[in-house]
Amino acid sequence: MSKDIDQAIFSLVYQNRFKRIIELYKRSFFILFDKVTLIYLIPFVSIGMIFLRSYILEHRTETIYTFFHHAPLLLSSEFAYLLLLAAGLASFISPRYKLTNSDYLLITLPVNMELIFRRNIQREQIKRLIVMVILFSLSTLLFDFFSILTCVLLILTFAIVDLFTGLFQWMAFQKQGRQKLCFIMGYFVLLIIIGVGFILFQSHYLAYYYIIGMGLMFTVTIKWFREELLYSVKWGETISYGEEKTWNRLIVKLITGVGFNFPSKLYITKKNGSKKRVNYQLTSVLSANWEGYLLNNKSITLNILINTIAIFILLSIRFHVYSLSYFLSTLLMFYLLKNIFQEQLTTHKFRVLPWSKRDYIKSFLKSVSWLVGLLLILQFIVLIFISGNGIYQSIFAVIGHGVYSVFFFILLLQNSFLLLESKNNFLKLKQFMLIMSYMGLNFISIYYPVLNVVMIVSIVLMRHFIVRVRE
């Protein structure tokens, strides 16, 4: 009886200690749960499916159309291949398995490190898979994007490819020189083999070809997962990166693209290698800090741009609701940028500068203006070639939309300052009213372009009046 009690006490203590150790390892083995990448994969794949389906219906002969119409597995495998490419590229852009400086301390704990690491990977992969299952199911049941067969095939494809790309990154980063090159080349050869099979084989063998490729990827994934994942980790080689986290040097180089040097001086590096000295002015210093932050976090900028463009094209082509597509896509971009802006308000490198709200907002707008400009150019092209509006109407519409967007973005950033200082419910109500006003102005800019002149003049006069009153 006493042995049973001792065993129960030992098990209880061990489980509690094990849970605490797992929490420590969650911080040391930083596994990125990249919600943004998961979200934009759905519109990205949906847009590819829409274009592919329209191409098949319009440009193929009747025989090939009939075959595709009666071979859903073949068509579904092509769509699944788009997902494979998207997930593979996303994993290269934003690696998920990272190390922090606390790893070096945790190796002294008397636990199985491999077991902890595998459990963390399994837990995060299951979370990512659940998100994709929900999104694919909603796309199938509510929007009729996919057939049931396509939905199931896409979910299986994502489950295999997502785990494969994560483990592939982890294994490849621990290799050196030629071994790493062979790893990367092997991955691209696998993608090319599957892609060539899609192009060359216009028969039911194509679906089998896809199944063979995915089976090979699944086999390699299982083999890697059964191997020792931490056999060549250099625990001491972590460096300071950013404000709080530290990373493996090789992963830092892959993410930033600028080697191992963190920009500590006020220089902006161009692509041609030349350097531009920053003027010793407060706005220039703030702009240089923002540009340095965006330079060393390219994946954040790329995710924002891809998400915005994907949602805009999806709503414009699928539903033809242009005012809603303009509003939602721009609102998404502004809120993602606002989150970055709000997070950086609390960092030390911005706290030590004697900045004002106006200088801070002005420098941030200057750093991200090219993102807004790219979106406006795309919206102008879509409005001309898809909506059927005339060129002058489109110009008036995009100019009005651009002015309203910049004005709304400035007010949104100003409101973020106030929200940090106080959690007043009135500020949240004010933010909601701003969104509603912005949606109404977008409706006017798209469907009544001529009224934009009156609205813009009114906004400028109102802004000038408010400034004069404050002075």
Please write the string of helix (H) and strand (E) elements: HEHHHEHHHHHEEHEEHHHHHHHH
- Computed over alpha carbons, the radius of gyration is 26 Å
Number of domains: 2
Structural class: mainly alpha
Total of helices: 18
Describe the main β-sheet briefly: 2 strands, antiparallel
Q: What does the average pLDDT come to?
A: 64
Query: Which descriptor suits the 3D outline?
Result: globular
Determine the fraction of residues in helical runs and give it as a percent range: over 70%
Report how far the terminal alpha carbons are from each other.
83 Å
Q: In total, how many beta strands?
A: 6
- The proportion of strand residues reads under 5%
What strand order characterises the main sheet?
1-2
Low-confidence stretches: 25-38, 61-75, 100-104, 236-276
Keywords: Membrane, Transmembrane, Transmembrane helix
Transmembrane segments: 29-52, 73-93, 129-146, 152-170, 182-201, 207-225, 300-317, 368-388, 394-420, 441-466
Written account of the structure:
The chain crosses the membrane at residues 29-52, 73-93, 129-146, 152-170, 182-201, 207-225, 300-317, 368-388, 394-420, 441-466. Keywords: Membrane, Transmembrane, Transmembrane helix. The protein is 76% helix and 4% strand. It is mainly alpha-helical and 471 residues long. The strands form 3 sheets. Strands 1-2 form a two-stranded antiparallel ribbon. The chain has a two-stranded antiparallel ribbon with strand order 3-4. A two-stranded antiparallel sheet has the order 5-6. Helix 13 runs parallel beside helix 16 (391-421).
